Amino acid sequence: MQISAFWSSIVDISRLVMVSKTTEAATRVHLEKVVAASGLSPEQITIFCQSEIPAFDNEGNLLLSSRHSIVTAPRFLYSWKKILEGGKIKKKKFQATILKQPGELVGSVCLDKGVPRVTEYSELGPELAERKADDGRLLFCAGSIANHLYSLEFLESFCNNSFHLPYHRASKKIPHVASDGSFVKPTVPNGIKLEQFVFDVFERSKNFYIWEVEREDEFSPLKNADSAGKDCLSTCKRDLAVLNK
Prior knowledge:
- Keywords: Nucleotidyltransferase, Transferase.
- Belongs to the UDPGP type 1 family.
- GO terms for molecular function: nucleotidyltransferase activity.
- This is UTP--glucose-1-phosphate uridylyltransferase.
- The protein has helices at residues 2-5, 24-38, 80-86, 121-124, 126-130, 152-156, 215-218, 233-243; strands at 15-19, 45-49, 52-54, 56-57, 64-66, 69-70, 72-74, 93-99, 107-112, 115-119, 142-149, 168-172, 176-177, 183-184, 191-195, 208-212.
- The chain is of the alpha+beta class.
- The chain folds into three domains: 1-49, no CATH class; 52-213, Alpha-Beta Complex (Spore Coat Polysaccharide Biosynthesis Protein SpsA, Chain A); 216-245.
- The strands form six sheets. A five-stranded mixed sheet has the order 10-9-11-8-16.
- The radius of gyration is 20 Å and the shape is globular.
């Protein structure tokens, strides 16, 4: 698409692919197969791995992934330096949103004492998440789909060791090795993962906007296995096919 639309351009568009230690190998193998066929140069692709921190059970105890190692999980924190290496954006800060549906597991863009924030669905709670405004829409109706546009100057202001994003608690089903050496694959949430999100820098923005976009054009999440029939690989493929008819 880049070649056909911008064939006369001398600037290559860079792609940054964030992976975890569990997905890195498979992602690299896949990209090696498709990059050449797509007409892109390997130099346009930067793969970077998220750092990881320990996960723990609901009592605060570390969990074992083997007899000699602990369970860790990605922070979900974007690597600022990698983004800046490939970034060419010079715009204001804004966040794309969709009109959230009842029960939808996405964060909500809102104002907290006049400060822009994204509140995770797990932190909002079901009562507030389902509350309606006078016009019948959800009170917290601006669903965050993680489409963000920042200026380089804004991002660079956080590239120092004194700045730290806050951690968010996420209740998860965490496979682990039990004290007797058996492998446990829980069916209900049994522990806590700590996550960091790039949207927590919004509160420091002086020029913040949200842009409501069409769901069909911008949002088809991949969260589940195909057996779920929703927010899975099959629905993503279907939505992309419909969009590009």
